[in-house]
Structure formats: C-alpha cells, structure tokens
Design goal:
two-stranded antiparallel sheet; 4 helices; 7 strands; 38% helix; globular
C-alpha cells in the first residue's frame, strides 16, 4: 500500500513542473522558437493613427532598427534579433485598430520577446495623451 502511494506521489510531482512551464520566462522570450500566428496580432482600443505612432515609438523604445515606414498603407519594416519584421496597422472601426507583427521571410522561428515587448509598450502608453509642444 505504501509503495502504491509513493508511486502515485512521484507521478503527481513529475506532472507539476510541466504545468509551470506555460508561464513565460526570460529564457522563452529571448530564445528563438516556433511562434504561432495568433501571438503576432493584437486588437487595441485606440484609433489607427494613434496605434501607428505608438508602434513606431515601441520599435524605437525597444532599440530595434527601423528600415522603412509607409504611413499611407500603415506598415513599418524593422529589424530585430537579426531578422526583418513587418508591423502592419489596420483600422477595424473608428475606435479600434489591429497590429500584426510578422516576420518578413514568413518563417515564424524567432524570439517571442520581439512581439511581446512591442505589445507591452503600446499597452502601457496607449492611455497617455499627446502633449503639444509650444514653438519657441
């Protein structure tokens, strides 16, 4: 009876760490891995123009290199982790917009932190109101 309980407990204890792996760690954010497309797009409750400028600011704040900006079509081509990405901003309605960050070569093997850090910066700064600078 004691042997059965010990075997059961050992099985239970070996399952517990697997459940803890779903939490994002620093290692999972910086190590290249296969990333699902669902992690590469996000809907924000701000208009498309504001999201476009916040995306540029987020790329700059994360110290990624901006290669090309097309404001009319709403895309930004940038380099991060030795890989080119395309950030595409599109309007859903007057108060909502979507941001899609996808690899330019369509190979979804890259550090997840590239996308997560962009989205976090935008979320943190989306409530801030722009300040108009006065002319001197």
């Amino acid at each position: 009876m004691a042997r059965i309980i010990i075997v059961f407990l050992s099985l239970f204890l070996t399952v517990l760490p697997a459940a803890a792996e779903t939490v994002m760690t620093v290692q999972s954010l910086v190590t290249p891995q296969n990333v699902d497309f669902e992690y590469c797009n996000k809907i924000f409750n701000i208009n498309v123009e504001r999201l476009f400028y916040l995306t540029i600011a987020s790329i700059n704040a994360n110290k990624f290199k901006i290669d090309e900006i097309q404001s009319k079509s709403g895309y930004i081509l940038f380099t991060a982790a030795d890989k080119q990405f395309l950030a595409n901003v599109a309007s859903l309605d007057d108060k909502r917009a979507i941001l899609k960050v996808t690899p330019a070569d369509n190979i979804y093997h890259f550090p997840l932190g590239v996308v997560v850090n962009l989205f976090k910066y935008i979320e943190l700064n989306s409530t801030l109101q722009p300040v108009e600078l006065k002319k001197i």
